[in-house]
Write a structure and sequence with these properties.
The chain contains 16 helices and no strands. By secondary structure, the chain is mainly α. It folds into three domains: 123 residues, Four Helix Bundle (Hemerythrin (Met), subunit A); 121 residues, Helix Hairpins (Orthogonal Bundle); 53 residues, no CATH class. The longest helix is centred in the last third of the chain and has 36 residues. It is flat.
């Protein structure tokens, strides 16, 4: 698709968009946008550059913009750029309303407030996390992602192959991560049920109940295993470095020495069997991801080809001792038995007697 009228020569911007300079310009804009994220005025300038770049690519590529090789990134730009425009408009609108409201705000009235002793205990308790609270949290996370350009920053990964390999390997291992977490949760759940039941039986034998245990007994003997949730958390922290299992063993010793050995078996099983196997699966998944990445394979082939060219060039330079730029059969015959030439032949996988 070109720019211009129906008659006369048309100027196409599509070749310009496919150049190395255009890709470098996009990478520069995205990276500097992430650096200057705190300045609102500069954010408008970057939003304008992103919008201009999107319009130019749509006009230059035409219908192929929606069905080319990079169609995923193109649709991502169509989704992100309008959201950046909307976010910027809402920010500036909010700033204008804030200035206007501050100009019209009356003097604050001095009112008396209740002291902490007058406030009911239920009012001083932290509010539970509701669906509305989760929604607001996700809205803030989405706003931060859009404002920092994290989504568009993913496009720059094409120009940084090492970072692209890491990100693609992590994404490729997410499926294995889900199943590993499910397996780990099942193991933790089974042992948590055992330890919670043991703690409950111990309290019942001492004349207490799990619902209303005495304060000194609940703090000293059910700190980690007072409920199923706390038991699972304690077991997970024991293998994840969140708590020293000397403390956990100290509580289990109050129950029975047998439960200490059960806990040690749990640590040994998860630490030396489960986690090591999971680590091996993750490493294998990352290796498979790198081997199946077509871009990385092509880059490796190109790098190997370039290395072979350099080896052959060095071989010819070693044979051409007179530096004439021409290799004759006599030169090759004279230098073929020299150690340096034989080393170059071995480097490219050739036998000098071939």
């Amino acid at each position: 698709m070109g720019l211009g009228g129906a008659a006369g020569p048309q100027f196409s911007i599509r070749p310009l968009l496919c150049t190395w300079a255009a890709g470098e310009w996009l990478a520069w804009v995205v990276v500097t946008n992430s650096i200057f994220i705190g300045v609102e005025a500069i954010q408008w300038a970057y939003t304008g550059m992103f919008t201009l770049e999107l319009i130019l690519r749509i006009c230059g590529n035409g219908k192929s913009f929606f069905c080319c090789e990079d169609w995923v990134w193109n649709y991502l730009d169509i989704f992100v750029v309008p959201l950046r425009l909307q976010s910027g408009a809402m920010v500036w609108g909010g700033l204008g309303q804030g200035v206007e409201s501050r100009c019209k705000t009356p003097k604050p009235k001095i009112t008396t407030t209740k002291t902490d002793t007058q406030t009911p205990i239920s009012a001083r308790m932290p509010r539970p996390l509701t669906f509305q609270g989760l929604t607001s949290v996700w809205e803030k996370v989405a706003d931060i992602i859009l404002r920092t350009g994290v989504v568009r920053l993913a496009r720059v990964l094409r120009f940084v192959m090492a970072l692209r390999t890491l990100i693609s390997s992590i994404i490729y291992t997410l499926k294995s991560l889900v199943w590993a977490m499910i397996l780990l949760c099942l193991i933790v759940y089974v042992f948590a049920v055992l330890f919670t039941q043991a703690a409950g039986d111990f309290l019942l034998l001492d004349g207490a109940t799990l619902l209303e245990p005495p304060l000194e007994m609940s703090t000293s003997k059910t700190r980690f295993f007072g409920s199923l949730q706390t038991s699972m958390l304690a077991l997970f922290m024991s293998i994840a470095g969140g708590v020293s299992w000397v403390e956990v063993v100290g509580e289990l010793q109050l129950l029975s020495t047998g439960w200490v050995f059960v806990f040690i078996f749990y640590i040994a099983f998860t630490y030396f069997a489960v986690l090591n196997v999971v680590t091996g699966v993750f490493c294998q998944s990352a290796i498979d991801s790198a081997q199946n990445d077509q871009t990385l394979v092509l880059q490796a082939i190109q790098a190997e080809k370039q290395a072979n060219i350099e080896k052959i060039t060095n071989l010819f330079k070693a044979i051409d001792i007179e530096e004439t730029g021409v290799i004759t059969y006599k030169m090759l015959e004279d230098q073929v038995n020299s150690p340096e030439v034989q080393t170059y032949f071995e480097a490219i996988g050739l036998d000098v007697w071939d």
